[in-house]
Amino acid sequence: MKTENLIAALAADKRKALSPRRALAIALAASVAAACALFFMLLGPRPDFMPAMHTMRFDFKFVAALALAASAAAASARLMRPEGGHPLMVLFAAPALLAIAMALELIAVPASEWGSRLVGHNAVLCMTFIPILSFAPLALVLWALRHGATQTPALTGAVAGLVAGGVGALFYAAHCFDDSPLFVAVWYTIAVAFMAGLGALLGSRLLRW
Amino acid sequence: MSGANHSEGPASGQEAEFASWMRAGLDGDGAAYGRLLEALVPRLRAFARGGLARTGLGNADVEDVVQEILLAVHVKRGTWMRDAAFLPWLNAIARHKLIDVLRRRGRRGETPIDDVAHVLPDDAPAPETAPAELARLVGRLGGRQGQVVAAISLEEASIKDVAQRFAMSEGAVRVTLHRGLRKLASLYREPNG
Fold first, then answer.
1. What does residue A82 show for φ and ψ, rounded to 5 degrees?
2. What is the 3-state secondary structure (H, E, C) of B49-76?
3. B34, B44 contact by CB (below 8 A)
């Protein structure tokens, strides 16, 4: 086929495709809705949710999860543009917050309690339910990123996993009784890292173009 | 050609024109969009020829690579931000596709690749014989998609003509063309594609 014939066909296709940015916005909104629905079906907030809201450690979990989801979403929006580069500095936001909170916890709590706070009550539940709440968000964000044109499918998939893990953690945090930043830094991080790995694996297949 | 702007190259004068045609194209102006794609072809030819020659693959399939890049530009046009520069975006798409082509041909090495914005447009005429790869992929599309894409490209039939010929609504023809072109762009990457 001659190139001029191809161009005739391309110029005749005037259907607007969904813009990648809009696809990402839709995916984020749907992710929150999906994780929220599943959260209320499977877990629900802990009984002392309202009084717990007055404690800094409980609130911090939401701040960290939100920082993770938002920063990874911002990085995704750049990574999905072919000329967007690798804007990964923003991804240090959540780890930096977590590091500060851990340092404060180590100062505030006697060394004898560090171990029990780190181990917490229900690490297995945490590592099970954060991924369960994150699968639908990961699928939605990957769907949105397929509208983009990333140069780095595995990396972009991993960042999608961070978005999903952040959304999952945001809801799981409302159920979880372990509020110490030491617990969050270990078990939440393992769960989120699992989602990032899964995202990288799926992204390296699904985000090629 | 003066000034400190590092993006300044042989194409810098065309940047504004390309961007305005692209904006018009995204708003549904097929004529402006066709003009843009035609204007890109000499540049993409020089780009593809440079990349293939440097890896020792010769010139035989330059036009195939140009066509694959054009399809990628089309399918991914939504990733261009209206307020962003056009040529860096085009360069990213073209490089991505050229690297893909070289990989499929088994050349994984570090090949220096030109910047599309800085190549001198190739004013050699289009090859006399039409390249074969795209026609083969349209054949693989098959069904209504293959028929619609072939009619609109090879015969330059209008959407209206095609709708009458296949007893479809014009809307259905548009959807079929749109999906067919997307599928076509992805067929390049399939094994035995």
1. -60, -30
2. HHHHHHCCCCCCCHHHHHHHHHHHHHHC
3. no
The per-residue pLDDT for B74 is 97
Judge whether B87 is closer than 8 Å to chain A, CB to CB: no
Q: Where are the domains of chain B?
A: 10-125, 132-193
- Partners of B67 on chain A (C-beta within 8 Å) are 1, 3, 6
Note the pLDDT tens digit of each residue in B159-188: 999 999 999 999 999 999 999 999 999 999
Question: Chain B partners of A147 at a C-beta cutoff of 8 Å?
Answer: 78-79
The pLDDT score that the predictor gives to residue B164 is 94
CATH topology of domain B132-193: Arc Repressor Mutant, subunit A (1.10.10)
For the whole model, what pTM was predicted? 0.91
As a residue count, chain B comes to 193
Q: Give the C-alpha distances (Å, rounded to integers) separating A35 from A5, A166, B167.
A: 47, 11, 45
Class of domain B10-125: mainly alpha
- Distance from the Cα of A32 to chain B's closest Cα (Å) equals 24
| pLDDT band, residue B1 (cuts 50/70/90) | very low
Please compute the mean of the pLDDT values over residues B40-46 and round it to a whole number.
94
Are B96 and A13 inside 8 Å of each other by CB?
no
Residues of A with CB under 8 A from a CB of B: 1-20, 80-83, 147-149, 151, 208-209
Partner residue opposite A11 with nearest CB, options B30, B72, B154: B30
* Of the ranges A29-33, B103-107, B144-148, the best mean pLDDT one: A29-33
Contact B33 A11 (CB under 8 A): yes
